[in-house]
Every structure is written in C-alpha cells, then in structure tokens.
Amino acid sequence: MRVIGTLNEGALHAQLKEWYRRPGDRLEQSVGGFVVDLVRGDLLVEIQTGGFSPLRRKLERLLELGPVRLVAPVALSRRIVRLSPEGEVLSARRSPRHGRLEDVFARLVSIPALLGRPGFELEVLLTHEEELRAQGGARAFRRHGWAVVGRRLASVEGSVRIAGPADVARLLPAGLPETFDTAELAAASGIDRRAAQQMTYCLRALGVLETVGKRGTAVLHARAAAAAP
User: Fold this and answer.
1) First to last CA, the chain
2) Does residue 209 contact residue 221 with C-beta atoms inside 8 Å?
3) Mean pLDDT, rounded, of the chain
C-alpha cells in the first residue's frame, strides 16, 4: 500500500513543480512507498507550499534511500485577487504584508533536526504570488465574508539553499552582541519577536546557538563554540 499523502495539488504547487523541473527530471515517482514530486538523478525533490509537519515521516524515510531536497516558497509579495462565483476577477490589490527569507523558520520548527542530517537540504524559493479569494467558506467570517481559495505563482525572484547548520548560521545578522535575547535578534534582523523565537528554536536544535543564562526574565543565547565564525 502506497502512502502518498495528497495528490490533490493546488495551482501554486503545480506551477512550482513545472517551474522547478529540468530536462531529464522524472515527476511523481513512487519511491519507498511514497510518491515523490520530482526525481533528478539520485536526488529526491519534494515541493511543499504549506507546513512541514505532515512531511516529517515521508522525509525521514526518503532520506534513508538517498539525498533529499525540500523546496518551499516564501512569498515576498502577494496580490490579493477577489473572484466571482464564476471565477471572474472582481478586484485586485497588493497586500501590505511583505515576506522575507526568515519566514521559513515558522515552518522549519517542526523538522529542524533534519537540516543536521547528511544528504538533506532545504531550498527556499523567494516568490511573488497571487492569493485568490471568494465569498463563503468556513473561515470567511475572518475576512468580511471572503475566504482564501488558492494561490498562484506570479514569479520567482531567487532562491536560497540551506544544506546544514553552517548555512543556517549565516542567516544570523551581523552586529549581534556576544550574548543576546530574542528581542535583540528581532531588532537586528528586522523581524518580529515571534519569528525571532522560531529562528532561535531552530538554531538551538541544530547546535548553532546555545542557551547561556538569563537577563531578568529574558533567556540569553550565544553562538555555540563549534558554530562561532
């Protein structure tokens, strides 16, 4: 019996897979009882547009069989498109929220240790997307009757490949004090406190940071000796 998760792809997943594929790649291959998005030589590539937690078992199993690359988009910008029941565009506007590379830590918190495993790497695609909304749905009340019904790829601006703790360590901002708390990390990185906490959790799991004490109620962190530049 194959464990395949879901094959009901959204538009964004299908577009990213098409954008990522290269001549000779094989799509939707059965490997170890799972369906893998793309196989490139001996490299197994999984594209994930949502959270990483549902992929934990699959990624761990695939890593026993060969090198694995998890590809995940982070939207630098979104264009919000409202659709009629017939699918016609009613309006479109730019979302005021802008994403950045560090947003990936919100998803990485469910599998941080995998980045420390030989053969595993994460590639973050920095994208521009369209968020499609229509009236109705279980969560529509949160947006005045409009619910998100899908996402579409507008373009890919670039990518960042993270292949281990050393690559993750390079995401720490310059100018951090020797010991710091998450508020200082947030200020130095230009991210919010929650994102800094998620980033710190992942870096501690990978041995890049270590807890060194407290300042009042704030936990202090420092680069681990093995990860110090």
Assistant:
1) 48
2) yes
3) 89
Contact predicate 69/46, CB 8 Å: yes
The reported pTM is 0.86
Per DSSP, the three-state class of 19 is helix
Q: pLDDT for 182-195, tens place per residue?
A: 999 999 999 999 99
Pairing between strand 120-135 and 68-83?
parallel
Whose CA is closest to 105, among 51, 173, 157?
Answer: 51
Amino acid making up residue 59: L
Give the residue among 180, 187, 174 at the shortest CA–CA distance from 209: 180
* Sign for the pseudo-dihedral over CA of 51, 54, 58, 61: positive
CB contact set of 89 (below 8 Å; sequence gap of 6+): 81, 82, 83
| b/e code 128-164 from CB counts within 10 Å (16+ = b) | bbbbbbbbeeeebeeeeebbebebebeebeeeeebbb
Give me the pLDDT at residue 157, please. Answer: 96
pLDDT exceeds 80 at position 225: no
